[in-house]
Amino acid sequence: MNLLIIKFLKMNKTILIFLSFLTVLSCKKNVTQDLTPYTLNIGAFPKPNLPEDNKLTKEKVKLGKMLFHEKLLSSDNSISCASCHLQEKSFNDDKKFSKGVGGLLGDRNAMSIINMAWNTNGFFWDGRAELLRDQALGPIENPLEMNESLENVIKKLSNEEQYINQFKKAFGDEEINSLNISLAMEQFMFTMISNQSKYDAYLAGETALTESEDRGRKLFSQEYNPFFPSESGADCAHCHGGFNFENDKYMNNGLSSDSEMEADLGRFKVTQNNQDKGKFKVTSLRNIALTAPYMHDGRFNTLMEVLDHYNEEIKASSTLEPEIENTRVSGLELSQQDKEDIIAFLMTLTDNSLATNPEFFE
Ligand code: HEC
Ligand code: HEC
User: Fold this and answer.
1) pLDDT given for residue 173 in this prediction
2) Nearest ligand by distance to the CA of 296
3) 249 lines ligand 2 (CB under 6 A)
4) Pocket test for ligand 2, best of 247, 282, 324, 341 (most atoms within 8 A of CB)
5) CATH topology for 58-193?
6) 171 lines ligand 1 (CB under 6 A)
7) Which of 43, 197, 227, 251 has its CA 20 to 30 A from that of 33?
8) Does domain 198-354 sit in CATH 3.30.70.100?
9) Residue 145 is among the residues annotated as catalytic for this protein
10) For atom 33 of ligand 2, which residue has the closest CA?
11) The CA-based dihedral angle spanning residues 79, 82, 84, 85, taken in that order and rounded to the nearest 10 degrees
């Protein structure tokens, strides 16, 4: 009897040792297993080419969201990314030039942060950031924006319990560093997707466009035809084409003459190539009704002013795009009704569900 008990205890001991060995194993695994994959809601859009080395996880997206709303990222703790990129404005600002720390004004209009997952040719008006993660650190150190050193940001975040915890959840035991800050923010920005506009519902056969919107849709895509100006289009889709209404290029759309463009040489600042003088990113026109004022310098307050520009105010310059140069002298010959219809169509690109989605709230 005694012997049996001893045997039983011995067996239990081996089982216990075996069990604790298993726990150690599974604990080790947990560090990576605990990460929950995050699936982008791409709807009818094509699959984006996301960076292989920054697989989306819920933990990193959450950290990115915390950082996006974090005022500690600025030198006087007064400004976060969200101060200039307002959700209800398609993550854009409604000012001509955004106010940074100390009320200092930048010299370019802010940009909408939507559908960045499909932007594959650089970020900012001049494309100076190659990857979205490079972009994420730029505003922190920009003296006209957040005016803070990365070193200080890391110090400040390292004092906050919530960040110590969330960095641990997202990246394991690693310390808080600028690479991880940028990777998390890149992930959060990839989740800002706009694909629920009236136009998307129309494409899915769920709703119809009004007569004016549909006329605008055609004018937007049709080329200008000098022989039939009254029936020809505005060829906007030539540059603002495809599902995201952009072409991933830097172009000159006739805002400035050669001498005027000296004020901001755009893409040239990055490439030093004369052919790039006065060229700026062809931005997406999704949510465009929410993002006034318009252009890199916020010079136009309304979409009608934008249409007037393309219709009859194109300025000659050495880098003007040929397709715009072709119609520079004649103008696009759009009537008032044509312009109104194109604007009606542009309004169908507004995605109110993104503008009000609580997932992006602070
Ligand atoms: C003071 C206002 C301000 C703050 C704060 C700010 N931004 Fe911006 N953002 C801008 C302006 C202005 C531009 C355009 C700048 C340029 O082209 O030189 C821009 C451009 C961008 C773009 C480029 C979008 C594109 O289509 O290429 C992204 C992405 C972005 N900001 C994300 C951020 C993030 C992330 C933060 C926080 C770390 C941030 N911004 C903080 C004003 C701001
Ligand atoms: C040759 C290419 C090209 C064509 C054609 C073109 N655009 Fe643009 N568009 C651009 C570029 C480049 C910019 C950015 C210019 C800048 O800010 O310096 C731009 C900017 C815009 C903006 C402002 C975007 C913002 O975020 O502020 C609107 C609105 C716009 N275009 C609408 C139109 C409409 C409507 C048409 C047709 C009538 C049209 N575009 C035709 C290249 C083009």
Assistant:
1) 78
2) 2
3) no
4) 282
5) Cytochrome Bc1 Complex; Chain D, domain 2 (1.10.760)
6) no
7) 43
8) no
9) yes
10) 236
11) 170
Q: Which atom of ligand 2 is found nearest the CA of 310?
A: 38
Q: What is the pLDDT of residues 97-156, one digit of tens each?
A: 999 998 899 999 999 999 999 999 999 999 999 999 999 999 999 999 999 999 999 999
**Ligand 1 neighbourhood includes 98 CB (under 6 angstroms):** yes
Mutate to test the pocket of ligand 2, among 93, 97, 245, 253 (most ligand atoms within 8 A of CB): 253
Structural domain spans, the chain? 58-193, 198-354
Catalytic residue, from 52, 59, 70, 145: name it: 145
Q: Which ligand is nearest to the CA of 82?
A: 1
pLDDT confidence bin for 289, thresholds 50/70/90: very high
Please determine whether the domains at 58-193 and 198-354 fall in the same fold group of CATH. Answer: yes
Strand partners of residue 92: 86
The reported pLDDT for the residue numbered 29 is: 41
Which residue's CA is the closest to the ligand 1 atom numbered 11?
110
